[in-house]
Specification:
The protein is of the alpha/beta class. The chain has a seven-stranded mixed sheet, with helices on both faces. It has a four-stranded antiparallel sheet with strand order 15-16-19-18, covered by helices on one side. It has a two-stranded antiparallel sheet with strand order 1-2. A hairpin with a 2-residue loop joins strand 9 and strand 10 (about 235). The chain is about 35% helix and about 15% strand.
């Protein structure tokens, strides 16, 4: 007998594939096939099997043959049969034989670090499920039928209109819906802008410290990157020369944490005008400000010279693959051509859900709530360091979701290694350094205080303080009441 497909979806709501082969009659082959499907996990415990008549008709065998096979498997403990409930796979599908012992489950393997203090991820346990579900439901109920067809590569107008209002109000961005293109996040935007033969060409200036992933993405596209030195006022934009573009994080330099000085903000726009270049503004965590007034977007100084890039990966969740590019008018058509005729990345229903989430005010409420939570996390980190490691300086804490801990010289690598041994995931400052920039002059850790859930944060701080290097000036002994070094006086 050959392979047989059993499609009983109309009757039981599922497709069932059985292979009837091997020695013996059809009854024996059916029993073997069902037993193997259960043993292999293709029929899970509790799965309802087709009625005798349906399965017999689909297989072309007698109804009694199916009934006898079911009865045999019920007797063996593979299946259960109850009046009104049909025949189902038994909860304990493989019965124990005499002399066998119940297997002891192996201890579960740990997934990920014990304490996750890596930068770049919000507290995923705080995702606003109820509010998002309400917005998603409203959006789908009101959506026209065209939503479920091929998508516009520019993105749904509902979301572009919502972003136009929100970005102007919250970030000082000057735009209109026609100049916004929806994408699946910052990396997707960078690929569209810098793909071979695409919108921008190199060389491209970047900050001396930043995400290596972005540099690798640009290198893969054939774009050479030139590092700009950093200080407490941000990137030294006066070092810009013949580059065609510059990528900056002006609101909160990543990872060192300071804002770009107002004079340098003006200077970089003047450079772009003079060189017919563009500024790529990565506003990765612009909503989260704690101890100072929000820093507006550089894009507001000259919308025709700045490409503003944002996403919901920090404010909501990286699982929502939604971002946006606010483009100079002259680049819109070229970006859309690079993207293609149809939306292939950003889910259209998700776009509508986010549009409703913004328009309804739920996004603002969520951001305000998370701003308070992350500020409390930040304060907890500072307090723990003041109490247990007052010799460790901390900078970049006026905004964002991470802080930089300044370590004694020569201790960064050993501290990162000690943290890994204790199950703590974090990053050393040197890992963000551009390979062509000067050697690092200071050791440090980049600690993300948003990633752990609320109940796990205290234990994560305890573990972190336990691996920090001692104060060498005091012979490894911390002096009670000694004040902690805070780095530069001005907030970074």
């Amino acid at each position: 007998m050959g392979d047989s497909w059993v499609n009983s979806a109309e009757r039981i709501g599922a497709d069932l594939h059985l292979e009837l082969s091997g020695p013996g009659g059809r009854r024996a082959a059916l029993i073997r096939a069902l037993r193997e499907a259960v043993r292999a996990g293709r029929l899970a415990p509790g799965t309802r099997l087709p009625p005798y008549r349906s399965l017999a008709a689909d297989l072309g065998i007698a109804r009694n043959t199916v009934a006898d096979a079911y009865a045999e498997l019920v007797a063996e403990g593979w299946l259960t049969a109850r009046q009104g409930s049909g025949t189902r796979v038994a909860e304990r599908a493989e019965p124990l034989r005499r002399g066998e012992r119940t297997p002891v489950d192996a201890p579960p393997r740990a997934h990920g670090p014990l304490h996750d203090l890596r930068q770049g991820t919000p507290d995923v346990s705080a995702f606003p499920r109820a509010a998002w579900l309400a917005s998603y439901r409203r959006a789908l109920q009101q959506a026209p039928n065209e939503v479920f067809g091929p998508g516009d590569p520019a993105g749904r107008r509902e979301l572009r209109e919502a972003l136009t209002e929100y970005l102007a109000r919250a970030r000082g961005v000057r735009t209109e819906p026609e100049r916004i293109v929806i994408c699946s996040g910052f990396a997707h935007a960078l690929r569209l802008l810098c793909a071979p033969g695409g919108v921008l060409r190199g060389p491209l200036a970047v900050e001396a410290y930043g995400l290596g992933f972005h540099r690798e993405l640009l290198a893969a596209a054939g774009v050479r990157t030139v590092p700009l030195p950093l200080d407490e006022d941000g990137a030294h934009v006066e070092a810009l020369g013949r580059e065609r573009a510059v990528l900056l994080t002006p609101a909160h330099q990543f990872p060192t944490g300071g804002p770009l000085h107002p004079g340098r903000r003006t200077a970089v726009v003047d450079w772009a005008r003079a060189r017919d270049a563009v500024v790529l503004e990565d506003d990765y965590d612009g909503e989260f400000r704690y101890d100072r007034r929000p820093v507006g977007a550089v894009q507001g100084l000259d919308p025709e010279r700045v490409i503003y890039l944002g996403s919901v990966s920090k404010s909501l969740s990286p699982a929502l693959r939604l971002g946006w590019m606010v483009l100079p008018r002259r680049l819109v058509a070229r970006v859309l051509a690079a993207k293609g005729e149809r939306e292939a990345w950003a889910s259209v229903p998700d776009q509508l859900g986010l549009a409703d989430f913004i328009v309804s005010g739920a996004y603002d409420r969520h951001v305000r709530r998370m701003r308070q939570r992350y500020r409390g996390r930040r304060d907890g980190l500072i307090a723990a360091l003041a109490a247990r490691a007052p010799h460790i300086g901390v900078t970049g804490v006026a905004a964002g979701l991470h802080a930089v801990l300044r370590l004694p010289p020569g201790t960064e690598r050993s501290t990162v290694k000690a943290a890994a041994w204790q199950g703590i995931a974090l990053d050393g400052l040197a890992s963000f350094r551009h390979p062509e920039t000067d050697p690092p002059t200071a050791d440090g850790l980049v600690v993300g205080y948003a990633t752990p859930s609320e109940h796990a944060y205290g234990a994560a701080l305890d573990a972190l303080c336990g691996v920090l290097p001692p104060d060498r000036r005091q012979g490894g002994v911390l002096q009670p009441g000694r004040r902690r070094e805070r780095g530069p006086r001005r907030p970074a």
